[in-house]
Structure formats: structure tokens, C-alpha cells
Design brief:
Shape: globular
Structural class: mainly beta
CATH architecture of one domain: 3-Layer(aba) Sandwich
CATH class of one domain: Alpha Beta
Strand content: 35-45%
Low-confidence stretches: 1-27, 375-382
Number of strands: 48
Helix content: under 10%
Number of helices: 5
Mean pLDDT: 81
CATH superfamily of one domain: SMI1/KNR4-like
Radius of gyration: 25 Å
CATH topology of one domain: SMI1/KNR4-like
């Protein structure tokens, strides 16, 4: 089953025009004149291969060639960088087509958090985006960093390093998994789990293990006996002759966990009750209330009650239902359906792929690429219709890593509202559904004149708006989210911190709920700790605040 699970790797391209109602195929690029066909599509870049399959180039969504070079292979873009292959060696291009790191490596992997694992002279190390060595080439293998630590192999033994090349966990294990939820699986005679200090927190009791996700991990205590434990080794699902799999970034999605019993898949709740019978040959995770299932070699969709809302009639499905549409395969032809099982794009040979808030469909016969969007998730949504956000957000690595969150589901919105202790304005939620937080294009904002205040008329420079999420550092529920500034930063508990500023004063923009109450429509205020946390009102509501910023950009 071909389902892209990498939700955190998606990025919206602002150059795509709004596709109006009914999901009509609008924007298209004709490749016939170029004598090439699409190979990958990522971060608004189309990677193309010549007809013979020998060389790659890439272009933007306007059909303009970007790459001045022709390479034997270009791997899809991630965080603005693409791995390239030329003359048997690997290097890196940026999105402008510039060769920023020459192809000198025997192997090269994605840049994550500004660094990448590479191989040279038979050994592995780590470089930064300038090509500078940050971890020397002395290791048998190095794995990408998770939770700030690199897994590595030295003289056949596994351990962990930090970015300073300091050994955090000694090289003493036969095998080791990646850190997740603060724990990593390590193997001696059996598997156990260590914390980031290298201390054994779950004993070596298990024959096989997976990775901790959302506080849970599936483990095998003996042959074919799988169960689910938490970080304190409490048994959540008992050890049985079955399989327990996480299908994305959690074991329980919509309160249900996928299990396989007697060779068939279904779903159980945390009480181990079989909510959806184990009768499917394959399944995918629940997303927005739907899960893809396979029966008798055909795919369809069920809801959380186990009802088959889309019959199992498709050769394959390429995505979860999101924003009301899903990609499908019918005997080698690809298209999209809606929740009523209606075909909303023509079936065609080629491929289909889900990007941030749209689908990309390639028609092989026409040699054309089509871009499909939903009304619900585009930037020009109904609430903000008519507003120009083309130059509003800064699309760079730091914004993606620190601010920009995945699309906010109703569950995430509710979770974040409970965490920040206030109901978010509708205008705020609607804006985040189009672009969930990020760095602004350095918007200068002049404070209003207030008699007797030293800050009156001062010019401030806004940095970034918090997205609705919990995983990014500068998201509403993140490490430096709203409650941090109130509980640790000493800011007055008047509402929700939503925007940072570009200064050493740590001044902030807040939603002020003092007059409207926690459920009402707050005004927007500026607070600077250097001026005894003086509160200056700058807009009557969030919509007015954004309107002013749009006029300034």
C-alpha cells in the first residue's frame, strides 16, 4: 500500500493559485515541449527525468527551469536542499539550482536540523549546510539525529553521540534504535530501553521491540507474543499471538489501535476490546475519522464505527481522507474521490501524490501535471477571501523547524485551547488552517500613541506567529509556547501569547481576554518586559491585527 506517512515534511507553495469550488482541475503544466517526464514533486519543485531516464533536472511550478545542471539523479527536496548524484558521488543543490556542496561523498542523506549524515572513504560523519565537518569520518555508520542524539556504530558496537561529537551513550550494544519520547531501544542478549543519559529504564526483557510513540511501544516477550507497554512498563494491551502496529506517529488514532489476529487486521481500544473486527488483509491509520482497509485484494474506507463508507473496490488508495478527498488507483489509473465516493478528477495513467493542502496528479498520456486543491484548506479560504498573503510568510528552514505546524485538526485545536486555557478566535483558527504558524517577512509595526507611555510611537519588528500545535518550539503548546511566557517569563496572565518580536527585550504580542472573558473575542496587545510589562492595545481583535499587517507587507 502506497501511503505517504511523512506529515511533518510537507510544505505549501504560495505560488499556486486558489482552485475554486468542486475541485476542478485548474493549474496545469505541459511537459511535452520539454521532452521530459516528472519524477518527484516536493516543496514546490518538480524533479524531471529525460525520456531515456539518464539525467535529472528540476523546475518550479511556473514551468521555469531552475537547475542549470544535468545530474544522474536528484533526490526530492527536503528543507530546501536536494541530494544529487553525479559521476558516482553525492552532493547537494539548493532550490535556486546552486550547487552548494559539491558531489564528493560516497553516500549522502537528508539535511535535518541543519546537518546531514554523509559517507567518505568508507566511514560516516556529519556535515552542516556549508559542507563543514561537525562529526568526523571515523564511524562505521551514523544515523540521523532524533531527540538531539545521533545513533552511531564504532567497531561493530552501537552507541549515541551529540552534535559536539561527545559520546553520550557508550558503544556497548549489539544494536540500538532511535530515540523517541526520550527512550531508545538497545540490544544485549534481549532488548530493553535507555534514557538520554544512557540509564536502563526498561530491563532487557524483550525478543523484539518497536519505537515509543505517544507514550506507548509494542514489544514481543516471546515468539509471536506481542503486547503494548507504556514508559513505566505497564501493560496496556496484553501479550497475545498477534501483531500490534503503529501506522504513523501513534499507536492509538481516534482511540483505536491496529492489531492483527489470525492473519487479519482490525482495531481495538485501550481496554483490548475489538471495536472493529479483525477481518481485513491490510489497513492504514485513522485520519479525520476514516481509515483505509483492504479486503479480498481491494481497498476502501471505514469510519470509527467500522462501517464501510467507501466500498472495498479500488486497486489501491494513495492517501488518507483529508479535507474530504482521497487519491485512488483503479487498475493502473489514478484519480481522486470525495467522501461520497464520487470521482472528482479524471482517471489517468501516471501517479498521484498528496502535498500540504493539495493533490498533485500526473497524466502520463497527456504528459501534464495537475494541481488539485480543496476549498477548506487553501489560503484564500472563505473567511480571509480577498486578502493577499503572498508576501506574508517567510518560507525558510528555521520557520519550518521552529514555527510551522501540521494542519490543525479539531482534536489538536481542542487540545491546544485546553493547554493555553482560552478559546482561540475563529479568525485565528481559520488563518492557521491555511498556514499553521511561521516567520513573518519582517513586518515593521508602529505602536499607537498613548499619553504618558514611554513606548508610544515606537517602531517594533514582528518575528513569527505561533501555530496551533504542540510539537514545534514556537507553537502555542510548544516548549516556548503561550504558557511558558506567562509561567516562566513573568508576563501577565491576561490571555494567549501569539507572536514574538525581533529584539533583545523579549517583547511579545498577546491576545487580551480581560474584558471579553475566556470564551470571548479578545483584543490584541503589545507587552515589553523592559517597560515593567506595560500593556499597549494595538488592535480591537485578531482580524484587525492581521488586516494591518497585510497592508504593511
Amino acid at each position: 500500500m502506497k501511503i505517504d506517512l511523512k506529515k511533518g515534511e510537507r510544505k505549501m507553495d504560495k505560488r499556486i493559485e486558489h482552485v475554486v469550488s468542486h475541485l476542478k482541475l485548474q493549474n496545469e503544466i505541459d511537459f511535452n515541449s520539454f521532452h521530459v517526464y516528472p519524477k518527484f514533486f516536493s516543496e514546490g519543485i518538480i524533479i524531471l527525468c529525460d525520456k531515456e531516464g539518464s539525467y535529472d533536472r528540476f523546475m518550479n511550478l511556473e514551468g521555469e527551469w531552475i537547475s542549470p545542471y544535468i545530474y544522474e539523479n536528484i533526490i526530492d527536496f527536503y528543507r530546501g536542499m536536494a541530494t544529487i548524484h553525479k559521476d558516482g558521488r553525492y552532493g547537494y543543490l539548493n532550490q535556486n539550482g546552486e550547487l552548494v556542496i559539491p558531489p564528493t561523498f560516497e553516500a549522502a542523506y537528508r539535511f535535518v536540523e541543519g546537518v546531514a549524515v554523509v559517507k567518505k572513504d568508507g566511514k560516516y560523519g556529519v556535515i552542516n549546510k556549508k559542507g563543514e565537518i561537525v562529526i568526523p569520518f571515523v564511524y562505521d555508520r551514523v544515523f540521523g539525529a532524533t531527540d538531539g542524539l545521533f545513533g552511531a556504530v564504532l567497531n561493530g558496537k552501537h552507541g549515541f553521540l551529540n552534535i559536539q561529537n561527545e559520546v553520550v551513550v557508550p558503544f556497548e550494544y549489539k544494536e540500538a534504535g532511535r530515540f523517541s519520547n526520550g527512550l531508545a531501544a538497545v540490544l544485549k542478549k534481549k532488548w530493553g530501553f535507555i534514557d538520554k543519559k544512557g540509564e536502563l529504564v526498561i530491563p532487557h526483557n524483550y525478543v523484539e521491540v518497536n519505537t515509543f510513540l505517544d507514550g506507548y511501544c509494542s514489544v514481543n516477550i516471546q515468539r509471536k507474543k506481542w503486547g503494548l507497554i507504556d514508559k513505566e512498563e505497564n501493560i496496556i494491551l496484553p501479550f497475545e499471538n498477534n501483531d500490534i502496529y503503529s501506522l504513523c506517529d501513534a499507536y492509538f488514532n481516534d482511540g483505536l489501535c491496529a492489531v492483527r489476529r489470525k492473519g487479519k487486521w482490525g482495531f481495538v481500544n485501550k481496554k483490548n476490546e475489538e471495536v472493529i473486527p479483525c477481518k481485513y488483509s491490510d489497513i492504514a491509520e485513522f485520519c479525520q475519522g476514516f481509515a483505509a482497509v483492504c479486503k479480498n485484494g481491494k481497498w476502501g474506507f471505514i469510519n470509527v464505527k467500522g462501517e464501510e463508507v467507501i466500498p472495498c473496490s479500488y486497486t489501491d488508495v494513495w492517501e488518507f481522507f483529508q479535507d474530504g478527498i482521497a487519491g485512488i488507483n483503479v487498475e493502473g489509473k489514478y484519480g481522486c474521490i470525495n467522501e461520497k465516493n464520487q470521482l472528482i478528477s479524471p482517471l489517468a495513467e501516471g501517479w498521484i501524490k498528496r502535498m500540504d493542502d493539495f493533490y498533485v496528479q500526473y497524466d502520463k498520456n497527456q504528459n501534464k501535471l495537475f494541481l488539485l486543491k480543496t476549498e477548506q484548506s487553501v489560503l484564500s479560504c472563505t473567511y480571509w477571501k480577498g486578502y493577499d498573503f503572498a508576501d506574508f510568510w517567510q518560507e525558510d528552514d528555521y520557520s519550518l523547524v521552529a514555527y510551522h505546524c501540521d494542519f490543525p485538526t479539531e482534536e489538536i485545536i481542542k487540545e491546544v485551547e485546553e493547554q493555553v486555557q482560552y478559546k482561540l478566535p475563529f479568525s485565528y483558527i481559520e488563518l492557521m488552517k491555511s498556514h499553521n504558524g511561521g516567520i513573518l517577512k519582517h513586518v515593521s509595526y508602529v505602536l499607537p500613541d498613548v499619553e504618558g507611555l514611554e513606548e508610544s510611537g515606537k517602531q517594533i519588528l514582528l518575528e513569527g506567529i505561533f501555530g496551533i500545535g504542540t510539537k514545534k518550539t514556537y507553537s502555542l503548546g510548544g516548549i516556548f509556547g503561550s504558557r511558558f511566557w506567562i509561567e516562566d517569563g513573568g508576563y501577565p496572565d491576561i490571555g494567549v501569547a501569539i507572536c514574538t518580536c525581533c529584539s533583545d527585550d523579549q517583547d511579545m504580542i498577546f491576545l487580551d481576554y480581560r474584558e471579553c472573558g475566556k470564551e470571548g473575542e479578545p483584543c490584541v496587545v503589545y507587552i515589553n518586559p523592559e517597560y515593567d510589562f506595560t500593556i499597549i492595545k494595538i488592535a480591537e481583535n485578531f482580524k484587525e491585527f492581521i488586516e494591518k499587517l497585510c497592508h504593511l507587507t
